[in-house]
Amino acid sequence: xxxxxxHNPSCGTSRNTLALIRNAGIEPTIIEYLKSPPARQELxxxxxxxxxxxxxxxxxKGTPYAELGLDNPSLTxxxxxxxxxxxxxxxxxxxxxxxxxxxxxxxxxxVLDILPNPQxxxxxxxxxxxxxxxxxxxxx
Length: 140
Prior knowledge:
By secondary structure, the protein is of the alpha+beta class. It has one domain: 3-Layer(aba) Sandwich (Glutaredoxin), CATH 3.40.30. Helix content is 23%, strand content 15%. It is built from three helices and six strands, in the order E-H-E-H-H-E-E-E-E. The chain has helices at residues 12-23, 40-49, 77-86, and strands at 4-7, 29-32, 95-98, 101-104, 123-124, 130-132. The strands form two sheets. Strands 2-1-3-4 form a four-stranded mixed β-sheet, sandwiched between helices. The two termini are 27 Å apart.
């Protein structure tokens, strides 16, 4: 089974998500979306398959969101996608794709819902939050 992550190595949530995928014994296809952004149709498909609206898939923090006036509720999905294409940093991250589905993995442990393999070892996020216990079970 292949797993693909649309990854930003500068993002802690993205790094934690990648680590959880690897903790399941999976080496995913890694797409650094700031260097290789998804094509418009691919982005629309990711958003749709993740069960999100285009607006829910936009990242506000650390982006030109406010300067571009993207908080305007009258903007259409196509206008928002135009902005995401022009400024890939506006694409929220990380999107993860597996045969079990697509998720915007925020928080990172959302990825566990679509991984085909169980976690192989305990896991804590970079901030120390325990996500997987010593028995490989998800901590709720």
